[in-house]
Structure formats: C-alpha cells, structure tokens
Design brief:
Blueprint lengths: L4 E4 L1 H8 L3 H7 L4 H9 L5 H10 L9 E4 L3
Length: about 70
Amino acid sequence: MRTRTYRLSIDKHLKKSSMSQNELARRLSMTSGNLSVLKSRDTVSLKVIARLMDIFELNSMEELFEEIEIK
C-alpha cells in the first residue's frame, strides 16, 4: 500500500506570483531563514496555511500542496 505524502509548494507559488522569498517572509512576519525551515517541515499550522492561501489568493488548501513520492 502506498502512503500519500504532501509538502508545501511554496516555490511554485512564489514563481507564479513573481514574489521573492524575502517578500513572502515579510508578509508572513518571519525571517527568510524561518521561511526556509517552514518549507522543509513535516507539519504546518492551519494559521500559516490560511495566511499562505490568502497571500497567494488560493481557493483551496489542496492548491498549496504537492504530492511527493517517498522511496
């Protein structure tokens, strides 16, 4: 049985929006270093997810994530 695993697709949305990582960090009220850590975390708070959805103007939480394959 294959387990589905997802991660934040922040880089994809940064590219689509032409926003820099520093600008996103500023809008999230965090340092760019903390944003880098966030991008690699296994868990993310709903508050951060909601803020990212608002910043990137997404309609659903699913748009913020991408499925990855764990080998």
